[in-house]
Give the backbone structure.
Amino acid sequence: MLKSTKTLGILLCFAAFIGGGALSNLSAAENENSFSAQQENVCSGVIYDASGQTVIGASIQVKGTTKGTVTDIDGNFSLGGVNVGDVLVISCISYVTQEIVWNGQTLNIVLEEDNMLLEEVVVV
């Protein structure tokens, strides 16, 4: 009787292990699908000025939301959770603010200098 109880216990543990593994694999597959879906909605690009130099610290924000980022030292940016058709607002001090509709492709944006703003800046 003790031997059959041990055998039954081992079989139940084995069944739970296999069943749990199948559930774990299903969760991993679901997580992988949701991760790849998130990766598809990553907007990235580079921001330049009119002379072709990259712009550091430009702000990129999805219009009407709090989602946003800034460009790094090389003018690169990457922003997750952006849907195709969302409007991106690109702004930086001394440049004209631009609004661009994201089409799902990598962006190369050229900002124009805001000459009116430059005339108003006073250095102390």
Summary: The first strand starts at residue 43 and ends at 49.
